[in-house]
Amino acid sequence: MLVTALFLMNPVHAWEPLNPGHGIRIQFTLHDIHPDTSVPRSPVVEPQVMQAGYTLYFLDEADLVLNIYSVDEDGNETLEYTTVVPASTTEIQLPSNLSGSYIIEVVRGEQCFRGGIEL
To answer: Which residues contact 65 (CB under 8 A, 6 or more apart)?
Structure first.
């Protein structure tokens, strides 16, 4: 009986800051890998980031750099915001002066991931 109860329990994750209806998961694609022969290659795992308004929630623990780019009508990118996100950080607030569609870039080690974000 006890064994059955253990299998029916829902896992609880410390990194679940949002109820499912209160945020969206940002979809990333691998954009680039910067080879560094002095460091062993790590497997490619998409970053887990959720957005609720101007707040980003980081669901996995990794040091990373976050960049936000605007794109003009000619396809030229302009860096609008950048910050280092230490592994212990679970959320950050983006500047409220950003408004519209942006490219969000997460650089984790030698891996660079990009996706879209709406503010």
So the answer is: 82, 83, 84, 85, 106, 107, 108
109: Cα within 13 Å, side-chain hemisphere: 19
1-38 per-position pLDDT tens digit: 444 444 443 333 344 444 444 678 888 888 776 655 55
Does 24-118 carry CATH code 3.10.20.310? no
The predicted pLDDT at position 43 comes to 72
Tell me 34's DSSP state. -
Considering the entire predicted model, what is its pTM? 0.74
